[in-house]
Specification:
Protein name: Alanine racemase
Distance between the termini: 35 Å
Low-confidence stretches: 305-309
CATH architecture of the largest domain: Alpha-Beta Barrel
Structural class: alpha/beta
Number of domains: 5
Largest sheet: 9 strands, mixed
Helix content: 25-40%
Pathway: Amino-acid biosynthesis; D-alanine biosynthesis; D-alanine from L-alanine: step 1/1
Catalytic activity: L-alanine = D-alanine
Keywords: Isomerase, Pyridoxal phosphate
CATH class of the largest domain: Alpha Beta
Number of strands: 38
Bound molecules: pyridoxal-5'-phosphate
Number of helices: 27
GO molecular function, one term: acid-amino acid ligase activity
Strand content: 15-25%
Length: about 800
């Protein structure tokens, strides 16, 4: 777009007469500015800051064009376009771009499910079209224009979500999105503090669809249906499971049947919980309307493995696990949280800490429903906080204890008595349940490794993209799942339908079994002492030598059980494995026993990440192919075959056989980084600034006086050292950490529990958060500085560092 055209569209005036020039990047956040020559910065002020204050600094960074609300007096040369409101201007610009777009635009609103419907629908439609969608949950007054602004006719479809928190917001969003197809997901039971009623909230949301050609919604939501009928004039298409609707949907087990315009379609459901089925139905109906075939939709559904889990799971004191949902509270939300709780198989004993529902009209009947729900979800104990819940005591059985307010609850000894439980903490914001959470979480050490489960699920999905639908995934969770925390990650992977897990040693597998992980599990390095344990815990050993095989067979035979073996062939790695020359001997052992079930035959590639070793790798695969074919021909059953690790999946997807073994890729680290763009980095190692001091020129810092102050310096001591896994080699300026987005280099030697960094001239105060690795610097950066590989950096984070799992 030309600069002058942009000014015309937003109705702005220039401070000078600039050359006309092409501008094609827009930023509204000074922290994420790119610094490109053709970038325009919209100075949009928030509550905390005036964006205009950052302009001189942005000019330094090379930004030349600004849209502002006040002309600035600065000596620096830049072009300012003045408007009355920069927010309005940005919205107008997005609206203009939308008007130039000729394809279909799908607008989504409703109380729950917007983001999931958007993500899933884009997966379904992306099979045949180029789709632009809102990033994350960008659905606000700024999020929507940010999402819409990149649209142009190189796309075929745009999918955008719109969310509002008060009346009169939707009109604007509707003008920007101008959906041709609308989806109304559903409406929660609370109407929110800014709305008088549910009805008003629905009516306001429907304003998104003023000029929409077709609105898709679920007929089963009676109130939504009534409002659409009453206030709404455009075409609509409803589907329903329980009601008489335009598009009847039938569900039997995992099968979903839809009758669309007189034709019947059947799909396999990847998940069966009510919320997911509803979200999926919206997507299917929209896809059918757009003209996708049954096969295309089925294909897309197969890729929809991931359910977005917005709740977070933390490890608590006394072996408790905590689900923190202490921010909102309505009935739907409680249902979702209890569903999430049900999916966690970590602990049997379920406890809920719940406050009054302040945004909902809650009468006795309502609380009776709450009690029914708790019973249904097998909640053993309820701690109820607030006067309304106390007043409804009669609705709850003996499992409930009541407290007038959060203070009274905190004063009781209950929190200290909870042990070995899965605890859901859920309540309205005003009850301040953070204080309860605070008392329940482990606070041993200030350094934490934060792991985003959602990013791991995302990475799994990226790798599945390389695989045929029928190819199985064995997830490698050895070494504490590469340092990230084996139980939680194994549970996540089980939830997302991986087929197998693999660990290095039997102990690791037992820990997983004891925590409710039921997936088939391979143990790579089981010792000869282990067979009884393997049997007891239903573990499947890797068999890497003929002697080991014989010894195991003896023990399994004695126990009258078949040995579930995974045979590894050594094709050039020269670590563990049966050599191809031993094939005859192997066949002989097999011929003499009836106690063997070969689950799989596999090999491990030595250099799958190095394309310079392509010939060698292909030779390994060829050797494996021959060996496994000859062996299989000799068997009465067909074992699975597998070869590829993460880098192998990327480089040699044509050799995926029946299964792949995915490890480091789940952590976003794929050795040569070719998937860098699409993978996410789930792990962040964080610590805190313990103290800051000023040292004079000539003083030294730390052990051995290795750090020298060449001038007066500000030094921060951070709470991480080599005992946490922060290698000594990172000292003396060999690494930096990020504090408030600024780089601070190490100075002096790394100590056992602490490290000093140079914060001279930086905006840092005591108690600030320090990023040791994450987005910046990355694990790869640290690996480079330490002359090692990312695997070692990640697995080296010591067990005393608490792992925190969250879901964004
Ligand atoms: C660790 C391991 C893998 C996984 O390798 P990544 O490079 O982390 O994907 C696969 N197979 C075997 C035998 C392994 O030991």
């Amino acid at each position: 777009m030309q600069l002058k055209e942009l000014a015309r569209i937003i109705g702005g005036t220039f401070n000078n007469s600039p050359e006309n020039t092409e501008v094609n990047h827009i930023s509204i956040d000074s922290r994420t500015i790119l610094g490109l020559p053709n970038e325009v910065f919209f100075a949009i002020s928030g509550q905390q800051h005036n964006a205009h204050d950052f302009i001189p600094e942005l000019i330094e960074k090379g930004i030349k064009f600004f849209v502002v609300e006040e002309h600035l007096h600065t000596e620096k040369t830049a072009t300012f376009i003045k408007v009355n409101s920069t927010v309005d201007a940005f919205q107008k610009l997005a609206q203009f771009k939308r008007q130039q777009f000729n394809g279909n635009v799908i607008g989504i609103t409703g109380s729950n499910g917007k983001t999931i419907v958007k993500e899933w629908l884009s997966t379904l439609l992306s099979t045949g079209s180029k789709v632009l969608k809102s990033p994350k949950s960008y659905n606000s007054q700024l999020g929507v224009p940010l999402s819409v602004w990149p649209i142009d006719n190189s796309y075929q479809i745009g999918i955008f979500e719109a969310g509002i928190s008060q009346p009169n917001e939707m009109e604007k969003l509707g003008q920007i999105i101008q959906p041709t197809i609308g989806i109304f997901t559903n409406i929660g039971s609370a109407h929110g503090e800014h709305f008088e009623s549910q009805t008003q909230k629905i009516q306001e949301k429907l304003k998104l669809f003023r000029n929409t050609e077709l609105l898709i919604y679920c007929r089963d939501h009676q109130l939504v249906h009534e409002q659409i009928e009453a206030t709404y004039c455009c075409n609509s298409l409803n589907w329903g499971i329980n009601t008489d609707s335009d598009i009847p949907v039938r569900i039997t087990g995992k099968k979903l049947q839809v009758s669309f315009l007189g034709k019947d379609y059947a799909f396999e459901l990847p998940f069966t919980d009510t919320a997911s089925v509803e979200n999926l139905c919206h997507c299917i109906v929209a896809s059918l309307h757009i003209g996708l075939s049954q096969a295309q939709i089925s294909d897309g559904i197969r890729k929809l493995k991931s359910v977005k889990m917005r709740l977070s799971l933390k490890r608590g004191l006394r072996n408790n696990y905590l689900i923190d949902d202490s921010y909102n509270n309505d009935f739907e939300g409680l249902k979702l949280a209890l569903d999430f709780m049900e999916q966690q198989k970590l602990k049997e004993d379920r406890v809920v800490i719940l406050t009054d529902f302040v945004q909902t009209k809650a009468d006795a009947q309502f609380y009776q429903q709450v009690n029914e729900l708790l019973k249904l979800k097998k909640v053993a104990q309820l701690y109820a906080i607030g006067p309304a819940l106390s007043a409804a005591k009669a609705q709850f059985g003996a499992r409930a204890t009541f407290y007038e307010d959060t203070r009274a609850f905190l004063k009781s000894d209950v929190l200290e008595e909870l042990e070995d439980k899965l605890i859901l903490v859920k309540g309205s914001r005003k009850f301040g349940l953070e204080r309860v959470m605070h008392r329940l979480v482990e606070k041993i050490h200030k350094t934490v490794l934060e792991v985003s489960l959602e990013s791991i699920a995302h990475n799994l999905k990226v790798f599945r993209g390389f695989l045929k639908p029928e190819t199985k995934v064995m997830a490698m969770v050895k070494a504490f799942a590469y340092g990230a925390g084996s139980i939680e990650i194994a549970r996540l992977l089980e939830f997302h339908g991986v087929d197998y897990l693999a660990v290095a040693y039997t102990d690791e597998a037992i820990t997983l079994r004891n925590n409710g992980i039921d997936l088939p599990m391979m143990v790579m390095n089981a010792t000869l002492d282990d067979p009884a344990t393997l049997m007891k815990y239903q573990l499947e050993p890797e068999i890497y030598s003929i002697n080991q095989l014989k010894a195991y067979l003896k023990k399994y035979k004695r126990a009258q059980q078949k040995l579930p073996a995974h045979l590894i062939v050594n094709t050039g790695m020269n670590r563990l494995g049966i050599n191809p020359s031993e094939l005859a001997a192997l066949k002989e052992v097999i011929a003499q026993t009836e106690w063997l079930e070969i689950k799989s035959i596999f090999t491990h590639l030595a250099a799958s990440d190095d394309l310079g070793e392509r010939d060698f790798t292909l030779k390994q695969i060829e050797t494996f192919n021959q060996f496994s074919a000859e062996l299989s021909a000799h068997l009465d059953h067909e074992p699975m075959k597998h070869v590829l690790n993460s880098a192998g999946i990327v480089h040699y997807p044509e050799h995926q056989y029946n299964m792949v073994r995915l490890g480091i890729g789940l952590h976003g680290l794929e050795a040569d980084g070719i998937r860098k763009g699409s993978l996410r980095l789930p792990a962040q190692l964080k610590t805190l600034v313990s103290q800051i001091r000023t040292v004079k020129q000539g003083e030294t810092i730390g052990y051995g006086r290795k750090g020298k102050a060449e001038k007066e310096m500000r030094i921060a001591t951070i709470a991480i050292g080599y005992a946490d896994g922060y290698l000594r080699i990172f000292g003396n300026g060999n690494a930096y950490v990020s504090i408030n987005g600024q780089q601070a280099r190490t100075i002096g030697n790394v100590c056992m529990d602490m490290t000093m960094v140079d914060v001279t001239g930086l905006n840092v105060t005591e108690g600030d958060e320090v990023i040791v690795f994450g987005e910046q610097p990355t694990i790869n950066d640290l690996a480079k500085w330490a002359n090692t590989i990312p695997y070692e950096i990640l697995t080296n984070v010591s067990t005393r560092v608490q792992r925190i799992f969250h879901t964004d």
